[in-house]
Amino acid sequence: ALIDGPSSGVRRCVCNFKDMQLTKFKINIRVGQRTKNIGKAYDDAEINKKWGETELAKRLARKKLV
């Protein structure tokens, strides 16, 4: 998979699906989109807000506090 993390600072790269944990969040983008446009779509979809509300995100945040 080609991944790009506009808000987390992850640069565009290739990653194996077995090394990822997929979520239900999806952004519809066209082929060949630049990081800037992906970041805008990411922000418009409020992915960070939706992710923060998931149980997995809350569990990971608790682990970091300990």
Automatic annotation (TrEMBL):
Domain Large ribosomal subunit protein eL14: 12-64
Entry GO terms, CC: cytosolic large ribosomal subunit
One of the protein's GO biological processes: translation
Molecular function as annotated in GO: RNA binding; structural constituent of ribosome
InterPro entries for the chain: Rib_uL2_dom2 (IPR014722), Ribosomal_eL14 (IPR039660), Ribosomal_eL14_dom (IPR002784), Translation_prot_SH3-like_sf (IPR008991)
A Pfam family annotated for this UniProt entry: Ribosomal_L14e
Keyword Iron: no
The UniProt record lists the keyword Ribonucleoprotein: yes
Keywords, ordered alphabetically: Ribonucleoprotein, Ribosomal protein
UniProt similarity note: Belongs to the eukaryotic ribosomal protein eL14 family.
Protein name: Large ribosomal subunit protein eL14
